[in-house]
Amino acid sequence: MVAYTRDEIVSASDVARSFSTILNSIIDKSKDKLAISKNNKLEAVLLDIEEYERLKNAYDMMEQKEIETILENRTIEDKEISHTKILTIDI
């Protein structure tokens, strides 16, 4: 879980009242991230677009690697099954 300092948490009502100021704190990088709370529960995070794209690309690469691993394991399992079937053929 990501930790947030007190000054990185803003309420949804504060965001509604001061959106431009809050957005500028992300754009000018005076804040790396801002967690938005509603009813004392963290609901969303506001990030710089470059950071979001970096995180999205990292996630996509991890997802692709996971898919490749699944496909490699299926190929290995298929070869093992084929080999097993060959050994059990009655001639």
Automatic annotation (TrEMBL):
<comment type="similarity">
    <text>Belongs to the phD/YefM antitoxin family.</text>
</comment>
<dbReference type="InterPro" id="IPR036165">
    <property type="entry name" value="YefM-like_sf"/>
</dbReference>
<comment type="function">
    <text>Antitoxin component of a type II toxin-antitoxin (TA) system.</text>
</comment>
<dbReference type="InterPro" id="IPR006442">
    <property type="entry name" value="Antitoxin_Phd/YefM"/>
</dbReference>
<protein>
    <recommendedName>
        <fullName>Antitoxin</fullName>
    </recommendedName>
</protein>
<dbReference type="Pfam" id="PF02604">
    <property type="entry name" value="PhdYeFM_antitox"/>
</dbReference>
